[in-house]
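Customer escalation, tier 2.

The customer says the design service returned an amino acid string that "doesn't look like it belongs to this structure." They asked us to rerun it and document both sides in this ticket. The original structure tokens are below, unchanged.
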């Protein structure tokens, strides 16, 4: 088995090493990760300049692009002749729950792999510091084994979030739906040393909707959440409702 590991926190992040170490138990590991923190870069691709990859040690590359660039470069370039059996994006240092998904470079790196046709798992630790990776490593190994054995549907990826706990203190893996965070809307306005205003998106978390079965609820109850995500973002339910209305306009 060949497993590509990437992340959005950057090639030096402790979560990346923990992910690579966990996957080494399942097969050969190949790492391509951004050369710095690219959190919240979503699915961005670099199109207006060249990409550079640096081999830091055998099978371990840093790239000066985004997380999606790393996956694209690995699958279509560095590993062109050897298709990986799985892409693991993580372990992200911070949760990717609810609406975090579309901001997340971690999740969208897995999304990119799925678009290219390789099964993918994004895995994150829901904490803001003092990250405990042994729990997510256990859960990601369980799920990776299952995916390597049985695959995933063609346009589906998996999003995992673990509490920052060791395996013995986790309640297990719970299958979940995408939940809903309640974000803060705070923009901090400050003044720079030259007297000009600047702004900082505060990004504080105020809470979450207690939706039964959701990722947020599972993680807060001590479970690892595992949510299947679809690359098809069509709202099929509303599409059917739309069909009952008139969209023809008048001329
Ligand atoms: Mn990150």
């Amino acid at each position: 088995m060949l497993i590509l590991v990437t992340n959005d926190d950057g090639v030096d992040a402790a979560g990346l090493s923990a992910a690579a170490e966990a996957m080494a138990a399942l097969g050969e590991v190949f790492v391509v990760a951004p050369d710095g923190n690219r959190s919240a870069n979503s699915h961005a691709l670099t199109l207006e300049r060249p990409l550079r990859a640096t081999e830091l040690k055998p099978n371990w590359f840093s790239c000066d692009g985004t997380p999606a660039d790393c996956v694209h470069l690995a699958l279509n370039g560095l590993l062109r002749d050897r298709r990986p059996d799985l892409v693991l994006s993580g372990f992200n240092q911070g949760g990717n729950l609810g609406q975090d998904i579309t901001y997340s470079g971690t999740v969208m790196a897995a999304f990119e792999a799925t678009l290219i046709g390789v099964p993918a798992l994004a895995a994150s630790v829901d904490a803001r510091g003092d990250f405990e990776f042994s729990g997510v490593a256990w859960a990601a190994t369980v799920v990776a084994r299952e995916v390597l054995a049985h695959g995933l549907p063609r346009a589906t990826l998996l999003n995992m979030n673990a509490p920052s706990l060791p395996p013995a203190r986790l309640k297990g893996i719970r299958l979940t739906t995408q939940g809903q965070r309640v974000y803060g809307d705070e923009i901090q306005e400050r003044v720079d040393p030259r007297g000009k205003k600047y702004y900082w998106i505060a990004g504080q978390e105020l809470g979450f909707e207690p939706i039964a079965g959701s990722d947020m609820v599972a993680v807060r109850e001590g479970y690892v959440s595992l949510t299947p995500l679809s690359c098809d973002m069509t709202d099929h339910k509303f599409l059917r409702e739309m069909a009952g209305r008139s969209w023809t306009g008048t001329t």
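Tier 2 assessment: The sequence is consistent with the input. The domain at 2-180+210-242 is CATH 3.40.1210.10 (Stationary-phase Survival Protein Sure Homolog; Chain: A,). The chain has one domain: 2-180+210-242. Sent an explanation to the customer and offered a walkthrough call.
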